[in-house]
Amino acid sequence: MAITEDQALRELSTIRVPNGSRDIVAAGRLSDLQFGDGSVTAVLSIDPSEAQIFAAVQKAAQAALAALDPAITARVVLTAHKAAPSPKSAAPKNGRNPHQARRPEGYQGDSQIDKIIAISSAKGGVGKSTVAVNLAAALAKSGKRVGILDADIHGPSIARLLGLFGARAGTAEVQGRRLIAPQTAHGLKAMSIAFLTEDDGPIVWRGPMVQGAISRMLWDTDWGELDYLFIDMPPGTGDAQLGLAQDIKPAAAVIVTTPQDLALADARKGAAMFGKVDIRLAGLIENMNQFVCSNCGAVHDIFGQSAGQAEAAALGIPYLGSAPLSIDVRKSCDFGVPIALGESAEAKLFAALAEDLIARI
Question: Domain spanning 5-82 has what CATH number?
Fold first, then answer.
C-alpha cells in the first residue's frame, strides 16, 4: 500500500521531543515530508547541540514510518540550521522565543532583495491577491525589479492571476546550493506552492509544515536582485501568519479590506497582529468599495458605504486609497494578465496606489 500524508503525520505525532511534552510535529520540528517512488522521507530541524539527544528520536520516527508499510523505504533526516534573530516584542518574559526561524546554511535566496512588503487581510475574499498582483505589476511596469511570493499554501491564486496555472518550478545551482528557480511572467518573478505540486488538489498540512514551506519558498528560491518582493499572505492571524512575520520580518505591511463591517473587524485583528510582532503598517487599501454599472453609470455601494478612511484613521495608519469592484479587473484575473499593465482607469489607479505605498516605505 502507499503511505498517505495523513498516516505519516499521525505516526510522527506519536514521537515526543526529548525532555519536552510536545510531539515533533506540534513542536515545529518537522520541516519537510517527501514522498517518492517506494520511499518516504521526513526532515527534522534541530540545533547542532541537539544532535546526540535527537538520535533516538530519529530512530523512533524512522521505525514508526517503516511500520506503516514494510515495502517502502523510510528515512528520517536531521538538519541543523542557524537560528535567525527574533523580534524582541515577540519574545516572552523569559527571553526565549518559542518560534525560532531556522535558515539553511550557505547562500540565501532572498539575500539580494532590497525590501519585502506583506499584503495582508485577516479575512479571505476581499481581493487581497488581486491587489497584491496589481501593485507588483504596476511597479514592474515602471521599471522596478519586482517579485511576488504566494504565501497562501491552502488556497494559492498567484499562479492563475499571472497566467501561470499548471507551471512547474525548476532548480538552479547558485553558489553551491540547489535553489528553486522562480517562474517569470509580465516582468515579475513569482513563487507559489502551486509550482511545486502535481495537481490542483488540496494541501492538507498542519501549522508547522505550512510555516516551514512559506519560509523555504523565500529562502530557497533564487530571487536574484529585486527592488521589492511582495508577499501575498494567507488570511487569518494564526501560526502561519505569526511565523511568517517573525521569520521574514517585512519592511512594511499593507492591510486590504472591503467596506463591509465584518471585513473591517478582521482588518483590525490583522493590524493588531503586525503590531505585536513590531512590523510597521504602511497603510490600508479599501478594495471593491463601489460598483459602477457599465450600462447606466449608476454607483452602487454593494458592501456598504466607504469606511476605509475612518478605519485607517482609527488604526493610526495611512489611507492609501480605494479600488472599485470592476468587471474589467475580474476579466484580467481570469485571463492571467494584471490590469495594472494596461492604460485603463483601473491601471492608473493601481499605479497611483503603488507609488503612494513605495513613498511610505
Answer: 3.30.300.130
Structural domain boundaries in the chain: 5-82, 113-359
**Could you tell me if 345 and 353 are in contact, meaning their C-beta atoms sit under 8 angstroms apart?**
no
Hey, what's the cell of 280?
A: 510597521
Q: Per residue in 307-333, is it b (16+ CB within 10 Å) or e — as a string?
A: bbeebbeebebbbbbbbbbbeebeebb
Using the 8-state DSSP alphabet, how is residue 104 labeled? Answer: P
Contact 284, 120 (CB under 8 A): no
pLDDT digits (tens, 9 = 90+) for 248-266: 778 899 999 888 777 788 8
3-state secondary structure of 253: strand
For the chain, give the percent of residues with pLDDT over 70: 84
Nearest Cα residue to 201 out of 1, 4, 32: 4
* The model's pTM: 0.70
User: Do 53 and 18 meet the contact criterion of CB atoms below 8 Å apart?
Assistant: yes
Range with lowest mean pLDDT among 54-58, 201-205, 303-307, 345-349: 201-205
The x, y and z cell numbers of residue 130, run together, are 488581486
Mean pLDDT within 292-299: 72
Phi, psi of 324 (to 5 degrees): -80, 165
CA pair distance 224, 83, nearest whole angstrom: 23
Q: What is the DSSP letter of 84?
A: P
Tens digit of pLDDT for each residue in 125-144? Answer: 888 999 999 999 999 999 99
CATH number of 113-359: 3.40.50.300
